[in-house]
Write a structure and sequence with these properties.
66% helix
Length: 271
């Protein structure tokens, strides 16, 4: 099996998603605004809190990373596949001369990467370059703690894209199995809470930390962000990367197994 069809799909889908620039700029404004609100909220919290596992500059940077890479999170199934489920056209996926799982994975990866690439740069400019020129310099997005942290972050955020794509394919499969895209909406709450988007996972109780590091949603945000500013370093960073890689493999195996069975139950009818 050659990878060329899937690389072509990845490239075509990526280029297609780059056309939605107006929506991306609207998203940048919204993400920066809500990022500022979240920063203010945590600044107020830290003003009356004692010693915390993450200091305030780290938490502020964590928030800006979350806003910049917000589009990476798998909140919903692929819109075109969801529409195909409602219309019945999803059955045509069985007729394409490619592996359906890899096709959907390539589509998901292009979707996450394109949307993120359109938004991450402008949020970085606003939060890391513009804010230091104002009276809110203490609330800026800080650069990685070291070259090693920057390198590990690139590795980790790449694994995040793959992990998010694997979860997106699972959402596609759930949608196909129950024949409605609304069935996958339950995952949004879990994604927000256990990825660290609502609150950095390091601020959760100490007894929960081993579970939080190894559950699948941590690899979507918390692990790469804490690697970025050095809160996860050395053996802990290695554990974080291992957790991401492990869940990519596990979810991909589950997804392929489940998709084969869901697709086998789809009946094609016509004259």
């Amino acid at each position: 099996m050659t990878a060329l069809p899937y690389l072509a799909i990845l490239r075509a889908r990526f280029v297609l998603m780059l056309q939605y620039r107006a929506a991306a700029w609207a998203g940048v404004g919204t993400q920066f605004w809500f990022g500022a609100i979240r920063v203010l909220t945590l600044v107020a919290f830290y003003a009356g809190a004692g010693k915390q596992p993450l200091n305030l500059p780290q938490v502020v940077t964590y928030i800006w990373l979350g806003q910049a890479f917000l589009a990476m999170l798998p909140w919903a199934p692929d819109a075109e596949i969801a529409a195909g489920v409602e219309s019945g056209n999803v059955g045509y996926e069985r007729l394409k001369p490619v592996d359906t799982y890899l096709l959907w994975f390539a589509r998901a990866l292009a979707w996450r990467a394109a949307n993120t690439s359109l938004r991450a740069g402008p949020v970085f400019v606003l939060a890391a370059l513009v804010l230091p020129l104002t009276d809110m310099a203490d609330w800026r997005w800080r650069l990685p703690s070291s070259p090693t942290a920057a390198t590990l972050f690139v590795v980790s955020i790449t694994l995040t894209a793959l992990l998010s794509s694997a979860i997106t394919v699972l959402l596609n499969i759930v949608t196909t199995a129950v024949r409605t895209p609304r069935a996958a909406s339950f995952l949004m709450g879990f994604t927000n809470l256990f990825s660290g988007l609502v609150l950095p996972l390091a601020l959760f109780p100490d007894w929960a930390q081993p579970f939080l590091l190894w559950q699948p949603f941590a690899g979507l945000a918390d692990i790469p962000y804490r690697i970025y500013f050095g809160a996860l370093a050395g053996p802990m960073a290695a554990k974080g990367l291992a957790a991401q890689a492990l869940w990519i493999i596990v979810l991909a195996l589950i997804g392929r197994w489940w998709l084969d069975r869901v697709m086998a139950r789809i009946d094609m009818q016509g004259s």
